[in-house]
Amino acid sequence: MNHWKIGTRIFVGVFSLFALLLLNGGASVWELVRLDDSFDRFAAMTEEMLGVVSLERNLTGLRRQVLFALASDNEQALRASQNMLDQARMQLAGLQDNNKLPNEHGVWQRIGSIVRTLQANVTLLAELIEQRRLLLRGNLEPILRGMEARLWHLQHLLQGTNGMETLARVDGAIGHLHRVAPLLARLTGVADDTVLPILEREMQTLDHALGELGGHLTPEVRALANQLQGAMEEYLRVERELAEVVRQITQKENVEFAALAGGQAEEYSRLLQGLDRETSVHNHGTIGFMGGMVLLACVLSLLVARWLSRGIARPLQAMTGVMGRLAGGDLTVAIPGQDNRDELGDMARALRVFHRAVQGMDRQHWLKETSVDLSRVMIQAENIAQFGQTMMARLVPLLGGAQGAFFLFDEQRGGLERSGGYALDPQMGLGAHIGLGEGLIGQCAVEQRTLVLTGVPGDYIAVASGVGRAAPLTVLVAPLVWKERLHGVVEVATFEPLGEQHHALLAELLPMAALHLELLQRSLKTQALLQRTRQQADELLASQATLRLQEEELLVANQQLRARGDILERQAEELRTSEEELRVQGEELQWANTALQDKARLLEDREQALIEARDVAEKRAVERELASRYKSEFLANMSHELRTPLNSLLILAEGLAGNETGNLTGDQVESATIIHESGSHLLRLINDILDISKVEAGRMEAVIEAVKVAELVGVVERRFKRMAQSRGVALQMVLAPDVPTVVHTDPGKVEQILTNLLGNAIKFTEQGEVRLTVMAWEERGVALVVADTGVGIASDKLERIFNAFEQADGTTSRRFGGTGLGLSIARKLARLLGGDIGVTSQVGEGSRFTLWLPDAAPGERSAAVVPIPVAVPVLPDLPPAAPYPVDDREEIRPGDAVLLVVEDDPAFAGITYTQAKGRGFRCLLARDGETALSLAQRFHPMGIILDVGLPGMDGWGVMNRLKQDPQTQAIPVHFVSAVDARLRAMGMGAVGFLTKPVTRAQLAQVFDRVVQADQGGRQALLMDSDPVSRQEVAGLLRQDGVRVEEVERGEDCLARLRERPYQCLILDLGMAVGEGVDLLQRLVSEFGLDLLPVVVYSPRHLTAEELLRFREFTDSIIIRGGHSSDRLREEVDLFLSHVRPVVPEPVLSTALLTGCQVLVVDDDMRNMFALSKVLRGRGMKVLMAQNGNKALTQLAANSDVDVVIMDVMMPDKDGYQTIREIRAQAVWQTLPIIALTAKSTTGDREQCLAAGANGYLTKPVDLTALFDLMADLLAQADVEAMAS
Amino acid sequence: MKVRGVEETEIHLVLEALRLRHGYDFRHYARASLRRRLRALREQLGLERLVDLVPKLLREPDLLARVLSGLSVPVTEMFRDPEVFLTLRREVVPILQTFPRINIWQVGCATGEEAYSLAILMAEEGCLARCQIYATDINDAALATAEEGVFPAHRMALYDDNYRRAGGTGRLADYFQPHLDLVQMAAGLRRTMVFAHHNLVSDGVFCEAHLVLCRNVLIYFDHHLQGHCLELMKGSLVRGGYLCLGLREGLDGLDLEQTFYAVKREMRLFRLRPGGGQAPGRPGGG
């Protein structure tokens, strides 16, 4: 190029020299200047052309790239084409900037339009790719989402029904889907051979996963899965097709483009080479010419200047004009002077070559421009019709045609269809179908070759316009073929024959049109597919919405069902639960029923027996009654019968005793007197018997009349005055002022009663007086009290004196005589009169009989018994309802445990008595306060059980008296009463209070408490260094009647305990735990293992170790908080009142074991401590561990352990495990281990031994067996130790 | 000698086989209930006659677990009879809290729901840390489930209701973790529990208990065995310890009152009488 430029510059320089040389040449110089200018322009044009060629090359590459990208939808290709496009734009801009040449010839315009078209292509391409992506997304993603949702739902459903395996499968399927989705998304960007197999594989996996799910899929999900598979398959098909197309395009296009580009490049290079060659030839000439020129200029310039101005100037002028026109773009100019043999001729010839090159380039430019323009138009077509129309609209004028038609090849139908035209006869219309091979069009399609008909007859075709019609000369039928594939046929009719230029144009345009058609068709297909997919997606969405609705309904229904199911299940479960229990309950009830029935039957039998017995008894009673009456009647009769002879006998005897005739000896008189006395006695006896028989036979009647009390008293006074005087006893009659003057009663009976009472009184009184006091008995009548100062009657005999045929004392009876019937008759008579007789008596102090005599108003002649007042203070003695039990007072020996029970209810007294006897007490019974006090003084019982409600002095009075008397105040008193007055009782110093009714067990506790209290009282010792909490606890306990002594320091505590015994020590752990433990240890060392009960009251939680240390001394450990004060009271109360059973320990020979060290491992602390205590008692050293780990620690710290006693059932690490771990250590291989277990099955024994235990014992531990086993094992171990 | 019917004889033989071969004595179980369960077991095992179980029991050691499962009634739920738990919470726990360690023996724990309920109760009352729950049963299969602490999730709704009625102060859901359709009880609860095999008929006292729960177990026993069980519980209980029986328990055959007094009879809640257990104040009497 430089060469060319230098050449031209030299050329110009030479021309300039010419110009300088010819300065004086005038016009010639101007010509030269113009020539130079022309050369400049020519040079610029050449340069420009070269730039265009370079740009062309780039654009060719770009075109290829774009087409490839379009065909393959390849994003990379797209990006590459965009880059190339940018480069082209820059190149263009660079060219425009560098050259300030005018642009009128339109080369830049053309190039610009090419670039723009390409740009449009790139944009379209991008759109297509986007469409495709949408297609994929639109098609697959909703399905994927739906699928996923369904599968989740399915998973949800399956959870309720089937096992994990199914769930895993569903999970797998969903996992595949999740993998497929991003893969698909990636595929939308790139579709090539490497990705397709992956997609296919995923498809298979999904297919497999879905197949595995098999029966678990609901129909809905299966349909969805099928849909997804269909969509994926369709997509795969499209992909495969596209991949195929791409492969074809890339293969063939590469070749074709290579050829095309190669051809073009070749053409250009050939052209340029030609140009180059010619210019270089010209240059060689020019060099020579230049030499000549220089020579000429130097030597002949002045000489030939004129000749020159005439011979050269003219042709130069002509040439300059031609060059000017060429530079202006006129390529039609003729170049003169070509045939000249001179330099000018050479110049002209060179110019001709240049002219030709420019002409070729121009043609090429036009072709490209046209092709790019058409391409731009075609690419904008949105459908086939538009494509055909616009293509024909451009093509036909370009060919100079008048009419044209476009036929689209329909591959499926195997024919052609008219799809566009140019100036077509309206009659011919569109849409006509032409088969392959049919007519010229069909033939052209088959041959895929351009057919040109010239000299077409006038009637073959006519072109019409508004002004006329004419037949065209030439008809051209050309196929649209791209890559040997037919896309359509174009028919053009022209009036002019087609030139070479037209054929070149067709060759350029038709394949391009075919390509565009294919692109359009594919785009349309894609659009159709997209449309369909969108439609499908819409349908899917709609169906999904419906489905979702249904699904929700289903879900709701499902939930309801499930809820109902749950309820049913729950009910069923509850039913099932209760069924068995109910059954069992029912069975138990049935059993109880049967038992009840049995009992009922038994009872019935007994009742029957009772009824029978009663009948018998009744019958017997009647019989007895009858017999009694017979007896009484008999007696009555007999009395008369007896009395009659007796009467004579008495009279006779009395007569004889009087010895009125004086003929009897003293002895005989005395005998008669005795007979009389005996007779009289007999008579009284008979009278009494008669009376009592009458009363008992119900034949005694009271004759009521108004009796003056004073008269009555006078009668009896007169009767007994003498008798009293004779016995030296004063007889007093006292009439109280309020006594009614008249009483309605039977005076005979009253007299009889009073006679009996006064007779007895006088009889039993040796000195002193007998007093009859008459007083008013409330409003009811009178009370007559006969009091004496005689011997009195023992209290236990008091009641018996009223019994028939009994007397207070056998000896008395002998001494005083009498039938013993008198009082019995008197009481019966008194009761007949509606009253009664009561008695109080003190032995040696006399007796006091009271006759209550009601005033029986006239007309009320009745034997009705008037109720006797119970609580007449002066008259306490009443007839008992039941016999009062006899107590042990006769059998009491010194040292006996005596209990006094003060109780007026004989039944309860009897029960208490029996129970006390059962517990080894001697029991005294007192039915009133006075008796109780005297018994207490006399016997000093160890405890008193006291009722509140008593005749006479009540329980409170008794308690007061007991506590006032120094002799009795120490006796513990426990109240048992129907009156609930616990506080009052405790306040008076009672040890307890129990409210009636009580059970036997309660009664037993009462005994315990009384005994306990007797042993030392309720004394507790409270030790607490904190005064506030000490006060609080002491106050609490004192409320319960506990005597609490408080100490502040451990030393004080020990000192108090040395002084006197306490029932309980309360250790309030205000101090440090260690301090507390130390104190307890000192207590134990000083007072022995059987320490008094200790209650540890801790304000905070204890660790396991601390607890263990305290548990050695007590199991009564209370943590403050919650209801701790309640429990404190419970515990203290228990220690103060409970009688501790003494458990005898077996006498065992344990000498061998003394001094050996035992490790006891048990989580049951009671057992551990009980065992420890026993072992220590046998002189063994004991270590303790609460669990397996602590046992191992203990063993590690104490290598001299001789034997381990190991509980098996412990939390965390059980005994088996612990034993195994012990055995795992070489040191402990032979250590004797005894396992303790609560289990008794054979398996446990084996397990224990297998774990490494030497022996096995079941709980509760039999100590004899334990010691035997220990001794055996230790002996064995010794032997082994010696052996080793 | 009394002649028995065929089925009675068969049952007798099966029970003797169980007792002699395996050491399980069911002779004092309530007969009618036992008969029902043996019949069901026969069908379950596909045996033609009940007596066919005898040779199997003698020679197939693996069968024992199944037979034991079949003979026990592993029915339980969390906070069953919530009012009982409410009573425990309000009236028993405040006393239990005064003990330095609290041991609870749950007799016949089946699949352990009640034991977990107790643990939750103790946790909420702030004394789980010093609490040890021994839950025992003769059914090893049920014990295994109990030890796992895995229960069906759908039961939790019922349990939640019970829990609230039992005076629960938190949320039941805080005590377990859901796994699909199952839940697992919190490990913190399980740490306080020992699930162990224990046969009321043959095994002895193995722990010191402050509270014994034996709910609806005694109803399956005859009076002789009931008395034996009460002795066991008495032996386990500390002084003043509590006994909680089932609401369905008929108390007629039990001679409770000698050693226990009723704290709340309608809740079948009893307390050991002072002196009803061991002697107080010092390490027990051996």
Descriptive key words:
heterodimer, A: 1284 residues, alpha/beta, six-stranded antiparallel β-sheet, disordered N terminus, B: 286 residues, seven-stranded mixed β-sheet, three-stranded antiparallel β-sheet, 10 helices, 10 strands, disordered C terminus
Strand and helix layout:
The complex is a heterodimer of chains A (1284) and B (286).
Chain A: H1 2-21, H2 27-72, H3 75-98, H4 107-161, H5 164-189, H6 195-213, H7 219-311, H8 313-327, H9 343-380, H10 384-398, E1 401-410, E2 415-422, E3 433-435, H11 439-447, E4 451-454, E5 463-464, E6 469-470, E7 474-482, E8 485-494, H12 500-658, H13 666-696, E9 705-708, H14 709-727, E10 730-735, E11 742-745, H15 747-764, E12 769-777, E13 781-788, H16 810-816, H17 822-832, E14 836-842, E15 846-854, E16 898-902, H18 906-918, E17 922-926, H19 929-939, E18 943-946, H20 955-964, E19 973-977, H21 982-987, E20 992-995, H22 1000-1014, E21 1019-1023, H23 1027-1039, E22 1043-1047, H24 1050-1059, E23 1064-1068, H25 1073-1087, E24 1094-1098, H26 1104-1111, E25 1117-1119, H27 1124-1137, E26 1157-1161, H28 1165-1177, E27 1181-1185, H29 1188-1197, E28 1203-1207, H30 1215-1223, E29 1233-1237, H31 1242-1251, E30 1255-1258, H32 1263-1283
Parallel strand pairs in A: 10-12, 16-17, 16-18, 18-19, 19-20, 21-22, 21-23, 23-24, 24-25, 26-27, 26-28, 28-29, 29-30
Antiparallel strand pairs in A: 1-2, 1-8, 2-3, 4-7, 5-6, 7-8, 9-11, 12-13, 13-15, 14-15
Chain B: H1 6-22, H2 31-44, H3 53-59, H4 63-71, H5 82-96, E1 102-107, H6 113-124, E2 131-137, H7 140-148, E3 150-152, H8 156-165, E4 176-179, E5 182-185, H9 187-190, E6 193-197, E7 209-214, H10 223-236, E8 237-245, E9 260-264, E10 269-272
Parallel strand pairs in B: 1-2, 1-7, 2-6, 7-8
Antiparallel strand pairs in B: 3-5, 4-5, 8-10, 9-10
Helix pairs in contact in B: 1-3
